[in-house]
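Example record for the data management plan.
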Amino acid sequence: MNTSDPAENFKQLYDDVKKYVFLQSEYIKVEFVEKLTILLSTLLIITLITVLAVIALFYLFFSFAYALVPIVGSLSVSFSIIAGIYIVLIGLLVLFRKILVINPLVKFLSDLFLTKPQK
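Corresponding structural encoding:
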């Protein structure tokens, strides 16, 4: 490797830099695919949990509405109470959206994309 010919040394240096740039680009691609996989799988899990939680909450409130009938005297009034509870929950979600949605999402994405991988 230590030849006295500067042209040969320059060619070897050029080849090494070219190989290094290629390997770095491949590493970036692999890291991007890994982080995209983590992001998409987390999104899928959160979506499935949310859908199942909404279905469970729907049936829970539905049964709660029927349980309220003897107390309030009417099925329509009990369903109106449940609708009011939903409106309050939506209002709380809008009011606390930064704490409940935005901050955890920003933290998750910044941890995922901005931290150095552990070697």
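Summary line stored alongside the record: DSSP finds three helices and no strands in the chain.
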